[in-house]
Specification:
- The chain has helices at 6-24, 67-80, 136-141, 145-155, and strands spanning 43-50, 53-59, 96-103, 107-109, 121-126, 129-133, 168-172, 174-178.
- By secondary structure, the chain is α+β, with helices and mostly antiparallel strands.
- It folds into two domains: 6-103, Glycoprotein, Type 4 Pilin; 107-173, Hypothetical protein ph0010, domain 2 (Dna Ligase, domain 1).
- A four-stranded antiparallel β-sheet has the order 2-1-3-8, covered by helices on one side. The protein has a four-stranded antiparallel β-sheet with strand order 4-7-5-6.
- The protein is globular and about 50 Å long.
- The two termini are 21 Å apart.
Length: 179
């Protein structure tokens, strides 16, 4: 996981907002000359909040290219392709706050006791079902470890106790920043 400077974080937030604005205006997002730290491969999620409520969140768990490309792609997807929400409208953009989570690589764990609320994000896999929750979610919701595990199972469409019954568990950490 890259250790990002304040300048790089500001650059990523600006890129995310500019990408969404360009898409709303029907034009291509501007090309940037990213700082070297944004050229590093990293996985990222972009979350949109409006009035303190989630308005879109999309990300990737694996690095597929430079961080700046991942953030631009996830910003566009969170704004326009999150199936839980209608596409963002132009009149909403100024009311939306952006949050970026830059992820560490996934690490498979065998013991659910290794999950640390507030430190780890969680990815649960069983059969063809998968669910992920970012590290900030259980803290914001006031969940303990077992609730976090059960809620992630629910996100995957699994029974809440699937984490006790053979589901694969992966943890990751995230550097989270926003506007």
């Amino acid at each position: 996981m890259p250790d990002l400077s304040q300048g790089a974080k500001k650059e990523l937030l600006g890129l995310a907002r500019a990408t969404i604005a360009a898409t709303l205006e029907g034009r291509c997002a501007r090309e940037i000359d990213p700082s070297p730290e944004l050229e590093q491969p990293a996985a990222a999620f972009v979350s949109l909040h409006k009035g303190g409520r989630l308005r879109g969140c999309i990300g990737t768990l694996e690095a597929r290219g430079p961080l700046h490309c991942a953030v631009a792609e996830m910003a566009r997807s969170a704004a326009f392709h999150d199936p839980r929400f209608p596409p963002l409208r132009a009149e909403e953009l100024d009311a939306v706050d952006l949050e970026i989570s830059v992820l560490s690589p996934l690490r498979r764990i065998a013991d659910p006791a290794e999950v640390e609320v507030g430190r780890h994000g969680l990815w649960i896999v069983q059969g063809g079902r998968r669910g992920v929750l970012l590290p900030q979610v259980p803290t914001t919701c006031g969940w303990d470890r077992e609730t976090f595990l059960a809620q992630t199972c629910g996100k995957a469409g699994l029974p809440p106790d699937a984490w006790k019954k053979g589901a694969e568990l992966y943890v990751f950490e995230a550097e989270v920043f926003g506007e």
